[in-house]
Hints:
Layout: H1 5-15, E1 24-29, E2 34-40, E3 48-53, E4 56-61, E5 65-71, H2 75-86, H3 90-103, H4 108-148, H5 152-164, H6 169-192, H7 196-209, H8 214-224, H9 231-244, H10 249-261, H11 265-278, H12 286-304, H13 308-321, H14 328-340, H15 347-359, H16 363-373, H17 380-403, H18 407-420, H19 425-474, H20 485-509, H21 520-535, H22 542-550
Antiparallel strand pairs: 1-2, 1-5, 2-3, 3-4
Amino acid sequence: MKAPRLLAVATVAACLGLAAPAPADVIVLNNGQTLRGIIDATTRDESTVKIETAIGKLTVMRSRIKSIEQESPAQGYIHIGNDHRAKDQLSDALRAYQRAQQLEPANPQVQTLMDEVQREVTAREQLNRQGALQQIDELTRQARELIERQQFDEAEARLKDADRLVPNDQQRATLQALVGEFYLAWARERLDKLDKAGAEEKLKLALGAQPDNQEIVDELLALWENDPQKREQAAAVYETILQRREDDANLRKKLADLYYELNQPADAVAHYLKLYRDNPDYQGTDLEQRLVEMLDKLHKEQARQRNYAEAIRTFNVLAQLDPTADPTSVVFYEYMRQAQELGDNDPARLLQLAQFAEQNGLDEEAMKHYNRLVTVDSTRAQAQAGIDRYASRALQQAQFYFNQGQWPLALTLAEQIIRDYPNSKAVVEEAVRLSGRAREEAARDLRQREVFAEAYVERGDEYFQQAQIHYNNIFSTERRDIPRLSSDKAEAKRYYQYAIDSYEEAIRRNPNLQSDPRSLVMVRLRESREKIRRLSQPPTAGVRSFNRTIN
């Protein structure tokens, strides 16, 4: 008979996971064949019936149907599961039984069928697993033989096949060791054929399989030994090994020295510092010197990166090892750290920062902040007090220069105070008086210098003339038979030197004398130096030859 459309729709709803129950159907064909499954109620073709069975969805002409019988809601999926099970399609059978259980959770038959199928699946998996394990052992044996015959490509294929079969823990350990041996053997074969790139590739694979194999590590590092570009890779190898052997001091020392050569202060310090703290015997050794050097580089590098908190901590460690470390660095770092933490509109904190800068000799920074804070009502008085302190110190310096007789310096600084500290009234008044006195003293000193300079110029001219007389006597034909040549030469050199000393003292007292290189003073100074140079050259062939040398 024809199944009611309402029941068919309910069956489809259940297949889609809806709440409505779904009846199963049994179609008996005219030839006696039976189809069990779920009729699709969505078809609009009245001449056909569509039914979902174990072999899929079938379309049956109604003219071939003898009868349609309704069963329990889950029975159709039970039939489908049974059909799959009969064909040894256990996974599909289990899915069909699960659908049946969704429709009828309390049906004991469904749970029994599911348990039976699950036991069959488990038994089959165990059988398959046992076969896979046996196959892994066989593949491992074959790989060993191929490695011995140096048939490395074939051996690699066997090892990969064994790994894909998911070995157990014992087999995995055996395979891992064999993989390390395999790639090490292959690397050596590549080295024998001068294929360094190939050997390096195989050694890396070997190390990946056996990170603790020192033989592999040594061969890889030996390959990189004379290649500076491989040092970073060598460091990475050491780091990997050190993670498993943290107490290996010799290995840590090698790694630290490598980072030192690579000029990587942060990494070098981390390892040197641990070694130094763990072993007091390193005090006073090259390791301590390297640690100090790397700490000094590290705190400066951290400061350049604006990581001032870390820079302070690093410097403090450095100061413990090296008492001569310049403490001004950490003062500046602390100032910059506080500046980083300063809010955009926080005059009270900015005042604290300015006072810190003043107390620690960061004068430009302090004045910059005081000049800003003097425009804020809440900090004006304290900021002006800070400015007044700087003005007073500048005035003291100007007074010191004045007392030392350095009038131009005192005058310059006094005028600078007047310009830079206009709101420090009392200081400015004193600076005005000091500038006037310094100007008067400077003018008086200049006049005296000019007088003294003129006197030294006159003395230099006298010495120059006397030197010229002796110089000319050396080459006079009238005096050729008189044995005084050597005396005139010595006297000429002596008076030229007196002239040089006098002219240089005149210039020191009045620098304006050297402003014109063509002035008489500068011309005679150059000539005196040149004459002494020539007179200091030994004659090679008597006076005539010497005269030719001079002229």
